[in-house]
Design goal:
Blueprint: E1 2-7, E2 13-22, E3 29-32, H1 43-49, E4 53-58, H2 75-88, E5 94-99, H3 101-112, E6 117-123, H4 135-146, H5 150-158, H6 164-172, H7 181-188, H8 197-210, H9 214-221, E7 227-232, H10 243-248, E8 252-257, H11 264-267, H12 269-282
Parallel strand pairs: 3-4, 3-5, 5-6, 6-7, 7-8
Antiparallel strand pairs: 1-2, 2-4
Helix pairs in contact: 2-3, 5-6, 6-7
Family: Belongs to the peptidase S33 family.
GO molecular function: hydrolase activity
Domain AB hydrolase-1: 28-268
Length: 284
């Protein structure tokens, strides 16, 4: 594994790591983590795929191991940062895999630079329809999952937003396996970095303005590259939200993993790897 600092075009340093080599002709894989305002949690994904391709992970601007900065917190800026990562590793074209907010980032990058993307893997995203299509149901499902343990729900409500313990409790709702949910969430929080709440607030607000617009639908309808949508069927974010994106894309395939939640590679690693490998093999 090779850790490095990538310098964005405005001078901000971004943490990145490259592992694996793959075989001759294999397109490199670049991973875009969720958030916004979090950090890379894709070590397991890199480990399961770096025998087949070079895999690049990175911490997005202002989060994790990347340099603290004051933004700007815009999708356009994050797309430019992702392109800086691509250039740093001298990658001509990549398979892009994004998770949750990172799925939206990867999609926006593909829309901006389709010639630099061989294929897109959109994992646990929330589609391109209005925020109202899914967010209210997500909040209700979150409270229901946490409420399975009333003491856990009460503790979550009393903790400050920046608390690691609160994050672990909230992230535990993202797993279908309720017995191992806290264990899985603890792994997400190791290592722990401060959550970048200004980044989170700004990018979520921007997303609410961008989704559901005719411009976004039209751009997705014109995206001429293979896209794989991967869902965990027991994600607390309604999977119907992704229908809007599936309908718009001209070259799309969808895989639903029945016993997985929001991080499907954790709860169904074999199913997840098999799905991603079909895209990586075709993208040679």
């Amino acid at each position: 594994m090779q850790d490095t600092a990538v310098t964005a075009d405005d001078g901000v340093r971004l943490w990145a790591s490259r592992s694996g080599r793959g075989t001759s002709g294999t397109t490199p894989l670049v991973l875009c983590h969720g958030g916004p305002g979090l950090w890379d949690m894709f070590e397991d994904v890199a480990a399961m795929l770096n025998d087949r391709a070079a895999v690049v992970r990175w911490d997005q601007r202002g989060g994790g191991r990347s340099e603290p900065c004051a933004g700007p917190w815009t999708t356009e800026r994050f797309v430019a940062d992702l392109d800086a990562v691509r250039r740093h590793f001298a990658l001509q074209r990549t398979v892009l895999l994004g998770h949750s907010w990172g799925a939206s980032l990867a999609l926006n990058y593909a829309l901006a630079h389709p010639e630099r993307v061989a294929a897109l893997v959109y994992v646990s995203g929330t589609g391109i329809g209005p925020d109202a299509d899914w967010h209210g149901a997500y909040e209700a499902n979150l409270l229901a999952r946490l409420g399975e343990n009333p003491q856990r729900l009460s503790r979550w409500r009393e903790l400050p937003g920046e608390s690691r313990e609160r994050a672990v409790l909230q992230w535990s709702a993202d797993f279908a396996d309720r017995e191992r949910a806290i264990e899985h969430a603890e792994r997400m929080a190791d290592p722990w970095f401060p959550i970048n709440f200004p980044c989170n607030k700004a990018l979520n607000a921007e997303a609410r303005q961008a989704t559901g617009t005719p411009i976004l639908y039209a751009a997705c309808q014109a995206l001429d590259l293979p896209v794989l949508l991967v869902d965990g069927e027991r994600d607390i974010r309604p999977r119907s939200a992704v229908d809007s994106l599936e309908r718009a894309l001209p070259r799309v395939r969808r895989v639903a993993l029945p016993n997985a939640g929001h991080l499907p590679w954790v709860e169904d690693p074999h199913g997840f790897r098999d799905a991603v490998m079909t895209v990586m093999t075709a993208a040679r």
